[in-house]
Amino acid sequence: MSGIRAILFDLDGTLLDTLGDLHTSLNESLTQNGFAPRTIDETRAFVGNGIAKLVERALPQNATAADFDAVFDCFGAHYSTHYAIKTRPYDGIPELLERLHARGIRIGVVSNKFEPIVADLCKTYFGALIDAPVGDRPGLARKPSPEPAVEALRLLGCSPEDALHVGDSDVDLEMAKNARLTCISVCWGFRTEAFLRAHGANLLARTPDELERLIQNRIL
What we know:
By secondary structure, the chain is an alpha/beta fold. It is 47% helix and 15% strand. It is globular, with a radius of gyration of 17 Å. The N and C termini lie close together (7 Å).
């Protein structure tokens, strides 16, 4: 088969709707430390660059380093046992992954979540469909660095020329550019179509069916 042999997917906002659990853990950690809770829309705008950046963005400007440490530690403790309460795959995504897997396409996940959580979420919701779950771990820079994509491609035995990246954010677009990967941006996640276009997206999918058609054009 010529064309694409592997696809790297973002996790949050692309394969899984994780916003509810992130929002719950964020507000639990903020209120326990005396800070006002954030709205679901604020949380949506804060995610994408890892937990540290989420906490940093959620705290008020006058928060101290000690405040950050306290909220960050509280978030980690809460989310580590509450990351699969409200989280669900987006409609049509499991079926899409099954069809890609059946065609022999290797599937990786590249996320800024802690890698053990990434691996567990992939196993919980997608079983054996994910060949290489890569997340935040020591010694590996987070997106938008190309390092997570390079590691996933290494695990999959593919080159950038043989692969695509699919994500929902400007972080995904930047990582794909840095890793020399074509990027398809999905519009059902945490960023709007207008936002994605403004950040350089030129391949957009509004539904999993549209995504499959875009992928299909590059498999053959």
